Amino acid sequence: MPPWDCKSTTLFHPTMPSQSMGEWRTYLEFVETYFRNRGIKKPMVVEIGIGFGKQKRFYEEVLGYTHIGVDYRKARSASEVGAEGVSLSIPDIVGDSHAPKTKAALVAMLKGREVNIVYLDALHNYEALKMDYAIYSPLAKDMIVIHDITFVSGVKRFWEELIAEAVESQAQDKTFITLTGYYIHRRGKKFIFGQGTGIILLEDGNG
Ligand SMILES: C[S@@+](CC[C@H](N)C(=O)[O-])C[C@H]1O[C@@H](n2cnc3c(N)ncnc32)[C@H](O)[C@@H]1O
């Protein structure tokens, strides 16, 4: 059974993504088709900010990709991961994403391999994301992905600025895809059910 078919409703279940299920599934289906169509075998994904570390198994076990996770927290305590017990996340690289030595550790771990996806999901404020983008986007060959573009104001602002800049400069080298969150209504209240995943396709590779 693919992990996203899990019926558990708790975020802490080991096979549940942290993301909205529909959005995450659509994203994975998109990247799987994209790389398969281009004959790119075993793409490399770098995720900045891993949270409970749930993305790794989707990339590695479901898609057969290689994944490197970066986070400044070593692991979650048992009390944080809840009764169902998600396997405790251990980043491949522990460090502040803004620190030069963290990027240096990543570059060393890559051993010259190209990065097909850079996935930015660390500190969710405008300045911090802008720094992560400046530091890590040059490593991306095919896609830069930014998570939580729908409802986190600083992230939304940065995403909208990137699109506005591309429109302003009439750049033809990037395609912006927004997988928008959607809403559910329950007991008269409106809940955000998706977080918003922004994908930037680098049409001719980066650089
Ligand atoms: C929203 S969570 C990531 C969720 C994860 N990408 C997922 O899809 O399940 C944000 C993570 O970023 C990490 N983080 C925040 N600021 C950071 C920084 N400056 N350097 C490294 N990690 C950071 C936090 O420790 C947290 O684990």
Second CATH tier, the architecture: 3-Layer(aba) Sandwich
Gap between N and C termini: 40 Å
CATH C-level category: Alpha Beta
Which fold name fills CATH's third level, the topology? Rossmann fold
The outline comes out as globular
Portion of residues in helices?
Answer: 25-40%
How many strands? 9
Side-by-side strand order of the widest sheet: 3-2-1-4-5-9-6
Succession of helices and strands = HEHEHEHEHEHEEEE
Which secondary-structure class do the elements indicate? alpha/beta
Work out the helix count: 6
Instruction: Point out poorly predicted stretches.
Output: 1-10
Percent in strands: 15-25%
Number of domains: 1
- Integer average pLDDT: 86
The largest pleated sheet is described as: 7 strands, mixed
Hetero ligands? S-adenosylmethionine
Round the Cα radius of gyration to an integer and report it: 17 Å
Helices and strands in order:
Layout: H1 21-37, E1 44-48, H2 55-63, E2 66-71, H3 78-81, E3 93-94, H4 100-110, E4 115-120, H5 126-136, E5 140-147, H6 153-169, E6 174-179, E7 183-186, E8 189-192, E9 197-202
Parallel strand pairs: 1-2, 1-4, 2-3, 4-5
Antiparallel strand pairs: 5-9, 6-9, 7-8
Helix pairs in contact: 5-6
The structure holds S-adenosylmethionine.
